[in-house]
Design brief:
Length: 319
């Protein structure tokens, strides 16, 4: 694997009694008051430059963490495993917000020669963080839509990465998709259960492909016995999907894409209401009471932050 792809990072840019009493008090208060979750968001763009509305939202909603996508790992035309879509830092780390570097790995990378890949990913993350004055880095998250077939190779990579990060006192987390709950847990310190993109956006259906309790329900039986500490991630985005005679054409990202130009074109607007989200949240809570110690929303974008009211956010973040 050529090192030139990995070398360059983006730049700027009576104590027992007291303890018992405290525990007893905490236990009583937890029944009468909602539990407060740690609040976090994903940032999934190639330029880190949150605007004034997004920065104000972070402050108003007391967001303490940003899971910031640093780069993707893909297979190029020469069949080399390389980083791509590296985030360019145009803004400084917001005050009082911890940055969690996040790396997306395409599954086909696992079938290539991956010798040294774990070390290269870790070194690149640390270099980008140092170059752009991001820190202190306490956690790195890896995102990969692995399958039963690729699981062993992916887990081997994660174990090597975890060992590297522990040398720097940094923990490793990984995203967990619903279909991955039936597999043994990966060798990481904690996971984030992705409760979005639960359906197939390319299929014309009455079910919301962003999040629908009917798509989540079949997987809930695995949740209670899943052997990994878990957080929950929920959607804060929408899709406008263009179909032609019920066949998928594309997701519309601007007004030009949204135009129905041909007879038979239909534009469907998908988003997750606060009530739909709460229905899923309560269903997973029954199976895994500790799931909402941290709630992450995907993702920070001024186009979507007004989709919910202040009182909705309070319900989303608090149990």
């Amino acid at each position: 694997m050529p090192s030139r792809f990995w070398a360059k990072a983006s730049c700027i840019g009576c104590l027992a009694f007291m303890a018992y009493s405290l525990m007893l008090f905490s236990g009583c208060s937890s029944e009468s008051q909602p539990q407060t979750s740690q609040r976090a968001m994903y940032y999934w763009r190639t330029t880190f430059q949150p605007d004034s509305a997004e920065l104000a939202f972070l402050t108003e909603q007391h967001i303490g963490r940003l899971y910031l996508r640093y780069f993707d790992v893909v297979v190029n035309e020469q069949h080399e495993v390389v980083p791509t879509a590296t985030c360019v830092f145009e803004s400084a780390q917001p005050d009082s917000v911890e940055i969690v570097p996040t790396v997306f790995i395409m599954e086909n990378c696992l079938w290539q020669e991956t010798g040294g890949l774990a070390g290269k990913i870790v070194r690149r993350v640390l270099q980008m963080s140092e170059t752009n004055d991001i820190g202190p880095v306490k956690e790195v998250q890896i995102d990969c839509d692995y399958t039963k077939r690729s699981r062993e190779r992916y887990y081997s990579l994660l174990k090597l990465m975890r060992d590297e990060l522990r040398k720097h006192q940094i923990k490793l987390s990984a995203t967990i998709r619903l279909h991955q709950l039936s597999m043994p847990a990966p060798p990481v310190d904690e996971g984030t259960l992705m409760l979005y993109n639960t359906g197939d956006v390319t299929k014309r259906s009455e079910r919301n492909p962003i999040l629908d309790i009917r798509d989540v329900a079949p997987y809930l039986r695995h949740l209670g016995r899943y052997q990994l500490p878990l957080n929950a991630a929920y959607p804060l985005f929408e899709w406008k999907v263009l179909f032609h005679n019920d066949e998928f054409r594309h997701i519309a990202y601007n007004q030009t894409d949204e135009q129905c130009k041909l007879k038979g074109d239909t534009l469907i607007h998908w988003y997750c209401t606060a009530d739909e989200l709460q229905k899923v949240k309560q269903a997973v809570k029954k199976e895994r009471k500790d799931l909402h110690r941290q709630v992450i929303l995907y993702h920070l974008d001024q186009r979507f932050i007004n989709n919910y009211k202040t009182e909705d956010y309070e319900k989303i973040f608090n149990e």
